[in-house]
Design goal:
By secondary structure, the protein is an alpha/beta fold. It has three helices and five strands, in the order βαβαβαββ. The chain has a five-stranded mixed sheet with strand order 2-1-3-4-5, with helices on both faces.
Length: 122
């Protein structure tokens, strides 16, 4: 008898850098890209958060809302196309990964798979 994998419930975060008149269409394409990735994986998308062309400060605010949902055990993690869509520098990328991990969740990118910081003693 085959054992069923536990489903990991995640929010997809959609973010593109484009002119405002093209943002919705490109975010829809990004959503299809993410859905295609999770089709044969243990992840299930249970919600969507869209950047809608807002600033990096708005992305950070939305990110904190997602981290709060993870802390409250409403979702298990977040899926993005790649880290460059949610951050513009390496330090901020590590901070975002650490925030999700500290909240007890996971972060998955379609391009790189599951991301984690392997630190001992924390």
């Amino acid at each position: 008898m085959r054992r069923k994998k536990k489903t990991i419930e995640c929010i997809e975060y959609l973010s593109v850098s484009a002119p405002l008149d093209k943002v919705d269409r490109l975010e829809d394409k990004q959503s299809k890209y993410i859905h295609e990735y999770v089709k044969n994986k243990e992840y299930m998308i249970v919600g969507t958060e869209r950047r809608h062309g807002f600033s990096q400060n708005d992305v950070d605010r939305q990110w904190h809302q997602i981290v709060d949902k993870i802390k409250k055990k409403q979702v298990d993690g977040v899926i993005v196309a790649n880290m460059s869509v949610i951050t513009d520098n390496l330090i901020d990328a590590f901070v975002k990964i650490a925030q999700v991990q500290a909240a007890g969740g996971i972060i998955v990118t379609v391009d790189d798979g599951r991301l984690a910081m392997q630190l001992r003693g924390f």
